[in-house]
Amino acid sequence: MRWRIFFLACLLALVLTGVASGQQSPASSGAPPAKAPAKKSSAAPQQNAQPNSDDSAAEPKESALDPDAELQLLVRQAGNDSATLVKTLEDYLVKYPDSPRRAAIYRALLESEMNLHNQKSALDYAEKVIAIQPEDSQSMYLAVTLLEKLPDEASQLRAIDYDTRLLDRVSKADPESRPQQMTLEDWQTGRNKFMADLYVLRGRVQHHLRKNEEAVKDLTAGFRLLPNAEAALALGEIAEENKHADEAVRQYATSFILASQEQLDTNGPSVDLDMLRSRMGNLWRFTHDSTAGLGDIVLSAYDRGREVAKAEKPDAPVYNKDVTDPLQFSLRRIDGSGPMKLADSHGKVVILNFWTTWCAYCNQMESMLSDVRTKFSGRDDVVFLAINSDEDESQVATYLKDRKPGGALVFADGVGQAFHVESIPTILVLDKSGKIAYRTQGFAPDGFTELAAAAITKASVAPAP
Length: 465
What we know:
Elements: H1 7-22, H2 26-29, H3 67-78, H4 82-95, H5 102-115, H6 119-132, H7 137-148, H8 153-171, H9 184-208, H10 212-225, H11 229-241, H12 245-262, H13 273-288, H14 294-312, E1 330-331, E2 340-341, E3 349-355, H15 360-375, E4 382-388, H16 396-402, E5 408-411, H17 415-418, E6 426-430, E7 436-441, H18 448-461
Parallel strand pairs: 3-4, 4-5
Antiparallel strand pairs: 1-2, 3-6, 6-7
Helix pairs in contact: 1-3, 1-5, 3-4, 4-5, 5-6, 6-7, 7-8, 7-9, 8-9, 9-10, 9-11, 10-11, 11-12, 12-13, 12-14, 15-18
């Protein structure tokens, strides 16, 4: 994944916002810009006064500016010159070491040092940002990429720590917080790409540290999320080190095919195609005395590259297949005990709470649903089910260590589709005959407790069919 982080633009936006909130500009007040006194020069405020030209307004003296306005002026004067900006901002921090803009200034310095290829300084500023704002994922990601290139073990271990924190953060990201204009599918695709990149980065660092078992796990996880040339190359290198020549050639061939496909991308391939071709050919000739058969390996890699994601992630088992009546569904209990058959609840009022581990609103609805459960506690004719609808069920056990929805915990196993559940959270009340007496989809807190309780009361007094 290739990142282009516009820290300077972020700094300018923050500075301008700060200045605007601190003072009203002439433009915002509706008045034209005031001309500076004739004896002050905008070009050199620190020199002797010069007559002002007719087509430009003079800048105030630096000494008369407040820190935010001075910062704005300095950034504007530096323009696109990264070296000048670095010197200017470093001098500013000497003058204002406790500036509330330090994090934004460090980001701008980080970006400028990256532009100047001063990786040591860039790393220093990245970690300064992290120290102030530990949640700054962009700076942390850049720190990982910079630390990976350093040979010492301490830097490599620090890279693993940052990478692991990012993986944990991204895996717990709430899709509901995505930009309004971004579709859920695009958000999930972007998250998977980022997680694949993080797994591969950590895998490479583990490989540098000779922790090959952990490296293979990470590289394989990254490849499964998104087949990529870098993961295949590293897996090939590990296989070659372990004297598994045929496996190494297969991985190199996979990397070669994926990198060739990347050649069509405007960014170009992520690995050197000539290097791959040479390494793959040399290893094959060394173990087979000729290049005969290598073409078949490459073709197989091409076919595997198109299907690997599906092959590595087999289709999830289909539960309640061909069952059309949702009341006949059998749902797996999350704790692994015997399944729950909805038919066993015939003649009772059943409340279905569809939730997922990533749904932020589910927690709020669960809090209100808890009040409803309290009203009907001790009632044998009222049953509450908490139905998990996660596609990746591996996240559920970890989630339940910290919080647990009330009611019997079961997996959806297709019942959501049977009841046409189209958003999370969704809460249904089924009457004694199994018909839907109440439905709320999405986050709908207004009047929920009263409406749901009334629906349950009404359904429970009606005779069972």
